[in-house]
Amino acid sequence: MPALLITGAQWGDEGKGRATDLLGSRVDYVVKFNGGNNAGHTVVVGDEKYALHLLPSGILTPGVTPVIANGVVVDLEVLLHELEALSARGVDVSRLKISANAHVITSYHRTLDKVTERFLGKRQIGTTGRGIGPAYADKINRVGIRIQDIFDENILRQKVEAALEFKNQVLVKIYNRRAIDPEEVIADLLSYRERIRPMVCDTGLLLHNALKEGKTVLYEAGQATMLDIDHGTYPFVTSSNATSGGAITGSGVAPQHLDRVIAVVKAYATRVGSGPFPTELFDESGDYLRKQGFEFGTTTGRPRRCGWYDAPIARYAARINGVTDFVLTKLDVLSGLETIPVCVGYDVKGERFDEVPVNQSDFHHATPIYQEFPGWSEDISNSREFSDLPKNAQDYILALEEMSGARISAIGVGPEREQVVVRHPLTDD
Fold it and tell me: Do 387 and 285 fall into the same domain?
């Protein structure tokens, strides 16, 4: 199998790191191809819990080469802090490779992110304030700083001074903030140069050669389908392509190598930040899901908005990504519920939609149409075969599979690494 991709089928936080970790021993490279340190993964290994923000979760698996590819925006301070923290816990981080073409998040990106979001007031997007959006904006505006620029001080100086010539006008005259000294930014970026030098390479060539040699490459998306800049709930989205197409442009590897697309979906739904969320719950059911599922952001700590499973969104993700397999996570959170509603369509001003409306206004005003399924009271955390699950849990999974557009190949029944029911292998070996 040449290459696999894992992405989220909802609004993020579905458990992609868990799915990547599940495949880790069967792959040679794990590639992060989009996003920055705004997308956290929590991976539980035995008694150890690891919260990763920028690094691919494959860094926790011995023998795997983790890659930060060209489509990522990199906060060097966060990167080195994560590497040092993992090293202190005995994790080998020496294999990490970083694309010379990846863009850098600078201090002025973080500043602009925070002041702009405050300025928007009630119209806030709900960003993490980590500078991801402004860094991607500079990339598109062709005034960004790339990793390779740090190794040429003259080029770095030219680019930082040119970027700040305009940004300082905005900070001072619009936001009433202090101008940023270019020399401080340059000195900060240069301070990381020697520490990252051994990690930097042409990752596109590295991955191309790995595939030629028969190695297996796993692409790991940051964020998820409904936060994709083109295909998500715009403008309440991230600033990059978190769908399968983003893996191609974000890594520099041709599309014919992508063989399996795995989408991770929760047995219910969550969202962090602003934007439409048809099945969102504002009652005790939402509180129950948040408490039982410990639904707080890995990166921000913000409580997640919770709702029931949305089948049209799962179908949409299957179509956009070309999903071959779903991984259903957190089924155990639903144990103890008498009934479990599933959204099977939407009512928009009296008109029924069985698919996600293309018009954002329609989606914003969509009211979910529910079908209810009987719940189960049994503890499912020790289930390892599909037949071990209660009959009602099996029926729930089969119903979701029929509605969602692709087979459900694995089911998470607890937070630990081994608490998984595998119905179909995620690799062909």
Answer: yes
- What amino acid is encoded at 113 in this protein? D
Instruction: Decide if 150 contacts 192 (C-beta within 8 A).
Output: yes
Q: Assign residue 370 the CATH number of its domain.
A: 3.90.170.10
Least confident of 15-19, 182-186, 396-400, 414-418: 15-19
User: pTM score, two decimals?
Assistant: 0.90
Residue 1, burial from CB neighbour count under 10 angstroms (0-12, 13-18, 19+): middle
Alpha helix (H) residue ranges in 178-325:
182-190, 193-196, 203-212, 244-249, 284-292, 311-321
Distance of alpha carbon 202 from alpha carbon 211, whole angstroms:
15
Last residue of a domain, one of 193, 222, 245: 193
Q: What number of other Cβ atoms are within 10 A of residue 48's Cβ? A: 12
The candidate with the shortest Cα–Cα distance to 14, out of 22, 24, 6, is 6
Write the pLDDT tens digit of every residue in 269-311.
Answer: 999 888 999 999 999 999 999 999 999 876 667 899 999 999 9
- 27 and 218 Cβ atoms separated by less than 8 Å: yes
Which neighbouring-strand residues pair with 225? none
Do residues 262 and 5 make contact, with C-beta atoms less than 8 angstroms apart?
yes
* Radius of gyration of the chain, Cα coordinates, nearest whole angstrom: 22
Residues 6+ apart with CB under 8 A from 392: 373, 374, 375, 376
Helix H or strand E segment including 133: helix 132-140
Which residue range forms the structural domain that includes residue 143?
103-193
Active site residues: 13, 41
> Do residues 314 and 9 lie in contact, with contact meaning Cβ atoms separated by under 8 Å?
yes
What single string gives the DSSP state of each residue in 73-129? EE-HHHHHHHHHHHHHTT---TT-EEETTPEEPPHHHHHHHHHHHHHHGGG-----S
Report pLDDT for 331: 98
Cβ 33 vs Cβ 251: under 8 Å: yes
CATH number of the domain to which 133 belongs: 1.10.300.10
Four-point Cα dihedral 273, 290, 375, 335, nearest 10: 130
